[in-house]
Write a structure and sequence with these properties.
It is a single chain. Helix 1 runs antiparallel to helix 3, helix 1 packs antiparallel against helix 5 and helix 3 packs antiparallel against helix 4. The longest helix has 29 residues. Helix content is 66%, strand content 4%. It contains 5 helices and 3 strands; from the N terminus they run H-H-E-E-H-H-E-H. It has one domain. A 3-stranded antiparallel β-sheet has the order 2-1-3, with no helix packed on it. The chain is mainly alpha-helical and 140 residues long.
Length: 140
């Protein structure tokens, strides 16, 4: 049952929270240094919990209710992560200094949004499967 569509969505969320943070920087400092998630312990912990929940959720395909709850918990973790990113981006100035060096927000800050979208789609598919199983049980 790993080939179900919700497993594909959860795998995409796993890629967004487990692989892409290593590729895309969160932001670029004024000195030109790229800031990755590994430089902040809170980001590392939240990304690793999100990745772990995705992996566990993919392999608990026989327990749809548990999978649904884990996906919701993962969405909550990603919302907390997104809140931390928003807080950090509000603290980044984005202003130019006298040397015309600009601090830029990176695409890595949008990874929790991508993960939330895929997890919501997975939850919708899990709910649809659960409703289908309940309707078949009613016919027996």
């Amino acid at each position: 049952m790993i080939q179900r569509i919700q497993s594909v969505y959860m795998f995409a969320a796993l890629i967004a929270s487990g692989v892409l943070p290593f590729v895309f920087p969160l932001w670029v400092t004024k000195s030109g240094m790229e800031y990755y998630f590994m430089l902040n312990l809170a980001f590392v912990v939240l990304f690793s919990f999100s990745t772990t929940l995705c992996i566990i959720s993919i392999f608990t395909y026989k327990k749809r209710q548990k999978q649904f709850v884990m996906n919701r918990l993962n969405i909550l973790l990603n919302l907390i992560l997104l809140g931390l990113f928003i807080y950090q981006s509000l603290n980044l100035s984005g202003e130019t200094d006298p040397e015309k060096v600009v601090s830029e927000k990176g695409i890595g800050m949008f990874l929790p949004i991508i993960s939330i979208v895929f997890l919501s789609l997975a939850n919708r598919a899990v709910k649809k499967d659960e409703d289908l199983v309940k309707s078949v049980d009613r016919l027996r």
